[in-house]
Structure formats: C-alpha cells, structure tokens
Amino acid sequence: MDEKSDLMEKIISLCKRRGFIYPGSEIYGGLAGTYDYGPLGVALKNNIKNSWWKKFVDNREDMYGIDAAILMNAKVWQTTGHVDNFSDPMVDCKECKKRFRPDQLDNKKSCPECGGAFGIQRNFNMMFATQIGAVEDSSATVYLRPETAQGMFVNFKNVVDSLHPKLPFGLAQIGKAFRNEITPRDFIFRMREFEQMEIEYFVNQNDWQKYFDYWKDEILEWMDSLGIDMNSVHELEVEEADRAHYSSRTVDFEFDFPFGRKELYGLAYRTDFDLQSHTGASLNDLSYLDETTGERFVPHVIEPSFGLERSVLALLASAYKEDGVDGEIRQYLAFKPAIAPVICAVSPLLKNKPELQSRAREVYGMLKQEFGRVMYDDNGNIGKRYRRQDEIGTPFCIVVDFDSLENQTVTVRDRDTQKQELIKIDELVNYLKSKLV
Fold first, then answer.
1. Range(s) for CATH 3.30.930.10 in the chain?
2. Annotated binding site
C-alpha cells in the first residue's frame, strides 16, 4: 500500500471509529454510494455550512437565501436539457456484468474486476426518476433534482417581485442533490446522494468578467478560512470542449486528495442560458428592469458551486496529522477551533473524587451553555482522554484538579502543541472566544 492509499485508509478508519462517517445501511450489507454521518460528522458538516452561510449570505447585503423543493415539475429538467443530455458513458462487462465508466478506466479493453471483455459503450442518464401521485404513467414522472441551481432560477421572478433587489444580487441555497452515479467511489468524494452549497449571482452582461474574478477570490478566501490546505489547491481553466453546455467560462478548483488531484469546487459563467430557457418554456418573463436606467434585460449569471461532502473530505485530508514520542504514534485532526466539531472537552483529574466531578460539571455546564459544542469526558485516565480528543480534533482539553477547588483555576491543554496553561475559571469563556476567530 502506497503512502497516499494508506492515508485514505487511516482517514476512513478514524471516521468510522470516532463517529464521523458510517457506511450507509451497514447492518444490511451497505448501499453503494451512500454514507451516514454520525454525531461528530453532523457537527462538522453544520460548522462548514454555517461558515459558508455566514460569509456568503449573512455578512452580505446583496445575497438572498432560498430553500427550493427537491421535487420539481419535470418540465424544468426537460427545458434545461437534463432529461435528454444529463448522462455519462457506460460499459458493461460481458462476464461479471458489472458496469463502469470508460473515462475512469486505465485499461479500457478489459474489466478491472474479472478481465472480461466490455460490451458496446452507451450513455446512462444519471437522474433518479420516480412517480408522483397514485397513477403510474409518463405524466406522473418526476425526478430527484440532480443540482440545486434550477430551484434558484425558477424562483428568480418570485424574489425580484417580493424584495425588489438591486443588480447585482445573488440567490444562495444549501440542499440535497441526487445523481445515479455508475461507479460511486473514493469514500464520500463521488456519491449518489450529496449536498451542494450554491450561489447564482445575477449581473449585467457587461460586468460578468469583473464579477467572475471577484468570486474567484471570494472562493479562495473562504477555503483558506475553513482550514483547507491551500498548498494542495490548484486552479484549472476548463477548456471549451470540457465545459458544460451552458458555460462560457469555467474555473475548477482542484484539490490534492489522497487518491489524486480532483475537482473540489467550481466557478462557472452560465451567461443568460437558464433564465432565457425558462422564459421560453414557461412563457413567463424572467427579465429584470433597471429602475435607474429604465433598461429591461435578462441578467447573466456567475455560479460559485461548492460540494459539502467534498469540503468535509478536503478538510479531513488537510487536518489529519501524526506525530509521536518514544515510538508511540499520535493521530490528531488539526481543525481550526471555529470548525472543530467539539471546541473543548472538560474532565475531572480523577473520576472517583466527587468534589472534582462536581466542579468539573459546573465548568462544563457554563461552557456548554455558552458554546454548545462542548464535551464532558471522564472515561479512562487523562492520557487516554487526551488521545481520544486529539483524534476527533478537539482543540482544547480542560482539566479540573484540586487547585481548581482552591485557586479557581483549570489546566487548559492545547491539542497541537500539547502545552498546558492555567486559566482562571471566570476567564475561560473569553479565553475560548479569543480562539474562535
């Protein structure tokens, strides 16, 4: 096993062992392309989403959040070309009958599982179709959305009519999307059910280049603030032949994952393709009136697109560290305190001393009320607690000892440096707040 494969295995093992990510439906043998998030994984995802929403929605005057339905009228997907064109190439092995994407095969002539020959290549539509209502006919067919973007485009007129935003402005959404991937792979990188964090930013056509460059910088700034290793991030200008049909320019932000350099986020200039398409198909006017100039036009769109699961994986790969003393290896996740699932863990020095337990519970209750993401840990000795908290990325361990009873101080141990310092109990909240920037 090479070093990168070994790193991926270590991350997957840690995620399962410590309650970040579990295989979907595991007790029934699993379901390919699905994963369940445990308590710490949910906390990490929520912290990422909250960070994204704060930067791109709450801290701005030109952004409006929406939450569109997963199920949409099938005409939406017919209009955008998804029904006819949202497909990947697929080949079947004639021997073992397994399916593969030929563009992901090193050897395109024989099956990587059994060595058998492939059948004829064909296209496979990746949208999940289902029936709505009680009658099963073609008129009742709907699709699980393969992207969140169209929910924003079809609500463009609603937002304009309701809030009268000034151009440029954006719509932002975090939500589930579904793609029937032929070969889900690489842990949570490519899945059949995933979450997107997307923005559709509406601009005057003459300004698209300026705002494209602006959003490129915004994406990089947020990645850095999240704690993603920026030395592993690369910008790729996507060639015309490889761009989506709606895009006149696309930049992919790739990341050096343990399994190779792959797309993490994307930035696309979608022109006015979507609004014009929906105008023609729905017969609704999706133009915008500039009240200053009196000009009416269909805005163009800049789309920053973020995958939540890929954010989690890039963050895990960036944060995973190992060090050791005297041959003992310490695994830890060097999350930034603001993103860590648990900000701090509170422990009594000794579990069998009621007075230490009582004071530790008081400190825990105070911090829990203030920060929420606080854990009480009295399982095992202090050394084992430190190692356990290091593995889940807890930045600070707070130990209540006998000095805490007399001097009102606690020992705060830093995850990364392993250094300890005494902090007054009544200064703990401000101390931790200073670390959450």
1. 3-70+145-317
2. 101, 147, 179-181, 189-198, 263-264, 303-310
CB of 415 within 8 A of CB of 335?
no
Contact 121, 101 (CB under 8 A): no
Which bin fits 328, alpha (ψ -120 to 50), beta or left (φ > 0)? beta
Are the beta carbons of 90 and 121 closer than 8 angstroms?
yes
CATH architecture of 342-435: 3-Layer(aba) Sandwich (3.40)
Binding positions for ATP: 179-181, 189-194, 263-264, 307-310
pLDDT in tens, 77-114: 999 988 877 777 778 888 887 878 787 788 888 888 88
| Rounded Cα gap, residues 8 and 189, in angstroms | 12
Alpha carbon distance 286, 96 (integer Å)? 50
Q: What is the pLDDT of residue 275?
A: 97
* pLDDT confidence of residue 246: 87
Point out the residues of the chain with pLDDT beneath 50: none
Name residue 397's beta-bridge partners.
Answer: 345, 413
Strand duo 233-237 + 249-257: pairing: antiparallel
**C-alpha closest to that of 3 among 253, 320, 295:** 320
Looking up tokens 């991937």, which residue turns up? 181
**What does the pLDDT read at residue 2?**
66
Q: Within the chain, what is the greatest distance between any pair of CA atoms? A: 79
CATH 3.30.930.10 fits 3-70+145-317, yes or no: yes
> Is it true that the peptide bond before 184 is cis, omega within 30 degrees of 0?
no
Q: What predicted TM-score, i.e. pTM, was given to this entire model?
A: 0.90
- Which residues define the annotated binding site for substrate? 101, 147, 194-198, 303-307
Q: Which long-range contacts (CB under 8 A, 24 or more apart) does 137-145 make?
A: 141/74, 142/71, 142/72, 142/73, 142/74, 143/71, 143/72, 143/74, 143/77, 143/82, 143/83, 144/70, 144/71, 144/177, 144/178, 145/70, 145/71, 145/72, 145/176, 145/177, 145/178
Identity of the amino acid at 385: R
Q: How far apart are CA 375 and CA 397, in angstroms?
A: 9
